[in-house]
């Protein structure tokens, strides 16, 4: 089974005792193999939020590979650590390792080299940008859903109005004007058009709820 699943890629490990530097090979688009000099694979660490894979081989050196390109990006040492025997984790620009085996273990946390830390910041910013993009998409979807709901309300109002006995003004004709400001369909075209000539407030206000009606907020159906 793979040691890690990193951004959809399976990372396998194999032992090559004579190696002094680990090798990082891309077998296919979804499979990566790391060769190290030990079968204790806890000396390898990565996460989905990191663009790097960190590898140690019971020596002072920590090897950093780019997960995307499989290239060796950096080799660094932690001051005062003679042998990195276990990589605990990498977080917030720091790496935590264990030195020693069995009962004689020392836990050490140190800052990453600046060039690696800056790349982590870039990766973090990329994740933030992705989150912002997702939020924008969610907002657009919500807006579209609101428009659909508004149209459904209009259709329902129109259906209800068609079942009404008459226009609220003339009490004779069927309503065939809908006001977008309040979504009421309660007057007929004739009464709406005659309102300005007889001084009625119908042109300015909905006769059902009194909402101010704008010139562009009416439609004939």
From TrEMBL:
Keywords: Coiled coil, Metal-binding, Zinc, Zinc-finger. InterPro entries: Znf_RING, Znf_RING/FYVE/PHD. The keyword Nuclease does not apply. It comes from the Eukaryota. The keyword Zinc-finger applies. Residues 167-209 form the RING-type domain. Residues 127-154 form a coiled coil. GO terms for molecular function: zinc ion binding. This is RING-type domain-containing protein. It comes from Pristionchus mayeri.
């Amino acid at each position: 089974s793979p040691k890690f699943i990193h951004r959809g890629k399976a990372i396998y490990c194999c032992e090559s005792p004579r190696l002094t530097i680990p090798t990082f090979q891309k077998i296919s688009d979804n499979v990566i193999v790391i060769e190290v000099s030990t079968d204790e694979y806890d000396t390898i660490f990565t996460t989905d939020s990191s663009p790097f894979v960190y590898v140690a081989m019971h020596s002072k050196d920590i090897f950093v590979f780019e997960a995307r390109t499989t290239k060796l990006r950096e080799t660094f040492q932690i001051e005062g650590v003679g042998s990195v025997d276990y990589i605990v984790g990498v977080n917030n620009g720091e790496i935590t390792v264990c030195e020693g085996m069995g009962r004689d273990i020392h836990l050490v946390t140190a800052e990453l080299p600046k060039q690696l830390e800056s790349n982590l910041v870039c990766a973090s910013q990329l994740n933030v940008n992705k989150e912002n993009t997702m939020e924008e998409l969610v907002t657009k979807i919500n807006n579209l859903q609101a428009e659909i709901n508004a149209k459904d309300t209009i259709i329902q109002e129109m259906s209800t109005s068609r079942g009404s006995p008459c226009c609220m003004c003339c009490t004779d004709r069927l309503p065939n004007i809908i006001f977008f400001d309040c979504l009421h369909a309660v007057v007929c075209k004739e009464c709406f058009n005659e309102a300005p000539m007889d001084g009625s407030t119908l042109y300015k206000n909905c006769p059902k709820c009194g909402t101010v009606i704008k010139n562009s907020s009416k439609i004939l159906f």
